[in-house]
Write a structure and sequence with these properties.
- By secondary structure, the chain is an alpha+beta fold.
- The protein has one domain: Alpha-Beta Plaits, CATH 3.30.70.330.
- Helices cover about 25% and strands about 35% of the residues.
- The protein has helices at about 5-10, 15-25, 40-50, and strands at about 10, 30-35, 55-60, 65-70, 70-75, 80-85.
- It has a four-stranded antiparallel sheet. Strands 4-5 form a two-stranded antiparallel ribbon.
């Protein structure tokens, strides 16, 4: 499988309280990433796609939860989360913030 910058970063996690607090206070951004991606690949992908300077990358694997489906149980998939620390002054805008 070809791993490009676009495939390493799956989606930003921006609508949770923790991600909002980290983005506003500590200049950190959270992404769901490819489970096999390492920290160096994640850092290069963010720097090339968004044109920012990455200082640090922390990753963790989130275990899938058990869910009830009728009489049976199902398990959600495991996924990998990356918390990316940006250089002071750099930011990634996910929305066009022109609304007045």
């Amino acid at each position: 499988m070809l791993r490009t910058n676009e495939t390493i970063l799956k989606r930003p996690i921006i609508l949770t309280e923790k991600s909002t607090r980290l983005r506003e206070g500590d200049n950190k951004v959270i992404f769901e990433v490819l489970p096999t991606a390492n920290k160096a690949e994640i850092k290069n992908a963010v720097q090339k796609l968004f044109g920012v300077t990455v200082l640090d990358v922390n990753t963790c694997v989130i275990r899938g939860k058990d869910r009830r489906m009728g009489r049976g149980y199902s398990r959600l998939r495991n996924w990998k989360k990356a918390v990316i620390t940006l250089k002071q002054g750099d930011e990634i805008k996910f929305f066009d913030e022109k609304a007045e």
